[in-house]
Amino acid sequence: MAPPATFATSLLQISKARFLLLALLLCVFFFWTLRPADESWADYTWSSTHVEVPKVPLEAHIMSKCPDARDCLEYLVLPAMAQVSNRVDFQLSYIGTPTNHNDGIECMHGETECLGNIVELCAANLYPDPKRYLGFTMCLSKQYQLIPDRDLIADCALEYGLSFERLNECMSQEDGAYGMGLLRSSVERSAEANVTYSCTIRLNEEIRCVRDDGTWKQCERGSSVESLIADIDDIYNKLETPPTTSGVPGER
């Protein structure tokens, strides 16, 4: 049996208990005073600093075996993209005529153009970075008369870091039905936009410029690279941007 506690021992035990209680109360006090007033603050600051900035829609509607498409890409689209690719949502679309009887597509320059369109769509599908698939498409366009020559495709794929084997698999997938589906969807997109000329450039869902028969048409704000970039910057600066925070809890 333990010896009876003295008064001093009892007082010491009480003092320790009070000290522990006081320490616990202080911890609770500091927790509640230092916590954010709004429980969603942490979530808000995360979401406000991890948002996607809106980009300007830029689209080129082309035919793979069209000299106007080559000129359009070489003299306007690629030079502009080299400077504003971080501010645009770029897309290549193709022009053709759907054949309802067999779910196919008729291309102005024949079946070889349809094959060229498909290989370029496969490139964009497999390698969505415009710097790669757009460069590959431009490479083919420089010798558009040879499309879809195997050596041409292989050389351009090698130059821009694309796998020829993967491109070939895309084109032959489902006995060609997959690639034809890509082309049909792209052609339907151009038709819905009422685009019939290769090359037609649309900016922010509106026709910005057309290259037809070796000349620029419908380019009300100019056909120069500088004028296109200026228009892109103007639209980009007007896009809505999310509110920013100062990093202080409770401020929005």
Verbal overview:
- This protein has one domain: Glutaredoxin (3-Layer(aba) Sandwich), CATH 3.40.30.
- Helix 3 (67-84) crosses helix 9 (225-238) and helix 5 (130-141) packs antiparallel against helix 6.
- A hairpin with a 2-residue loop joins strand 6 (206-212) and strand 7.
- Strands 2-1-5-6-7 form a five-stranded mixed β-sheet, with helices on both faces. Strands 3-4 form a two-stranded antiparallel ribbon.
- The protein is α+β, with helices and mostly antiparallel strands and 252 residues long.
- The radius of gyration is 31 Å and the shape is globular.
- It has helices at residues 7-34, 41-49, 67-84, 111-126, 130-141, 150-159, 164-172, 177-192, 225-238, and strands spanning 56-62, 88-94, 97-99, 104-106, 200-203, 206-212, 215-217.
- It contains nine helices and seven strands; from the N terminus they run ααβαβββαααααβββα.
- Its main location: secreted.
- One of its GO terms (molecular function) is oxidoreductase activity, acting on a sulfur group of donors, disulfide as acceptor.
- Belongs to the GILT family.
- It comes from Eremomyces bilateralis CBS 781.70.
